[in-house]
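Quick one: structure tokens for this chain, please?
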Amino acid sequence: MVKIKYIPNKDLELDKIPNPDNESFDFESEPSKSELGLQRFALIIDGYNVTGGWEACSKCDSQVLSEKEKATLTQMRCVLFLIQRHVRSAYNDSHQEPRTKAVIRLIREKIKKGELE
């Protein structure tokens, strides 16, 4: 098992975050040398610990998707973490792909704007 290092928002680099608009984007694929890869990127935050548990992390999910403008980068990252945990336990990510791409796009926008809260 690979130990994943948690990365704070201020240390995120846009060019290392998976780009859902690339043709090679794949939830399950191994990352290129320049990107973290989606699975690994989703796990560089511990959404349960950051939010205070599964229930609180789940609340971020509905807020991020319904109130995108008000959602913080941390909340968005916690949602991606939650999606990854769901996919891992369900062994099926096909219905999560559009949602995953939407959240990654939101995360990338926040970082581009320098909104790192």
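Residues 48 and 54 are 5 Å apart (CA to CA).
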